[in-house]
Amino acid sequence: MSDKKREHLRFFKKLFSRALPSITAVFLCSILYYWFLPQQPAHEWLLLLLMGIALFKIAIIVHFVYNRLGDVLGESHYMLHILGLFGLVIALNVFTFTADYFGLYLLDPAHFDIKNFEPNSRFHIYFQSFYFSLISYSTVGLGDMTPATFYGKILVMLEIGLYFFVILFGTAHINKINIKD
């Protein structure tokens, strides 16, 4: 194995070991929502719990991005590393909100206005949530799915806020990036 490949391997091991708490939080919430949330209109306390979990995950991701990745950017000088780092951050953001939109839809489909959508299964709802999160995060906003309630709108605003945080993080640390290849 060449030195460059070893360096890439070392970088990605370090990156994923630092990202493990965030990845675990997002994954566990997705699994818990998928298997244990009732598919019925929810009590207010359940909606507040879902919002609290969303805020907790955002705090973990912000901590991960700001405190853990700033130093990683300073250590790495390969384009592959920079793209991997930002790809991981974007994936974390999209999947955390996928889980939140999914949970909110399960608690009450009235939280979203969705055109041409007949859910066949929880997987279909999860896919629609992923689609909406990706479209929202990319700021395309096609309009085929929109938040219809206070809680839906809050989640979308939080996702957009997190998106801007990532942009600010990238521009604030641009001076640390010195690309070799």
From TrEMBL:
Residues 125-169 form the Potassium channel domain. Keywords: Membrane, Transmembrane, Transmembrane helix. This is Ion channel. InterPro entries: K_chnl_dom. It comes from the Bacteria. The keyword Transcription does not apply. It holds the Pfam family Ion_trans_2. The chain crosses the membrane at residues 15-36, 42-66, 78-103, 123-142, 154-174.
